[in-house]
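Progress against Task 2.4 (sequence-to-structure conversion) is shown through the following example record, which the project officer requested during the mid-term review.
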Amino acid sequence: MKSLRKEDIKQEVFDLYDAYAHNKLERRDFVQKLSMYAVGGITVPSLMSFLMPDYETTLLIDKNNPDLDSEFITYNSPKGGGEIKALLSKPKSAKEKLPGIVVVHENRGLNPYIEDTARRAALAGFITIAPDALSPLGGYPGNDDEGREMQRKRERNEMLEDFIAAFDYLKNHEDCNGKIGVVGFCFGGWISNMMAVKVPDLAAAVPFYGGQPKEDIERINAPLLLQYAGLDERVNAGWPEYEKRLNELGKENTAYFYPNVNHGFHNTSTPRYDEEAAELAWSRTIEFFKEKLM
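Structure tokens generated for the chain above:
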């Protein structure tokens, strides 16, 4: 049987995966609903295999890239989960203190895609920290399904404190210039928005398809660059009210909607990935951070 392509898959299948990935469908129900689209030689196992993350062939940065210093560290999150593991990365060639970026994972812990993104940001001239909010439960378990189940056991505002503590860690790091931004994806997009609310001296925030805050928007000081997927009706529904409030308050914000792409379009590991939109969004992200942090 020939390999599946994104073009072979109906949009409803991606919508089902989105519901499953965000804990709105149990695995049994997900598989049962997928069976409706197993036609014309396409089997349920082949659909499942196609939709699940591939971390073997999709990473963009070698873990042992000779131009990077990249290592796992631990830091303390006294208002959150205690000792938190994180990937700390910076370019080896740096001669001066660097601006910092907190890189926030999705709803499944610090998986290889987020590690890869943190290394990629570091190569662009930043010191980056990518925490694992699953640290108090033993850390990312090696697969996203178990990671999602584990993350559901933690309270999201407590996890927010873990990422605020990562900001504080970078702020006091000897190699950081004190100007720090945050970029996050899905759950991490919500964290990015909330850090803008909670951290007065955050210098920039880039939420990718992240849920919007409902309160205390007037406390935001950081300029916002918001990245949305055109097909992501679930998250996009909250944008008009957020945009209205930001503009009423005179908060600096720019939003981009990438047409005909799904939630998760930046994630290289699944077929939701859209290279053209992802590269454009990432180039805008790095340009924004260079403008606001350097």
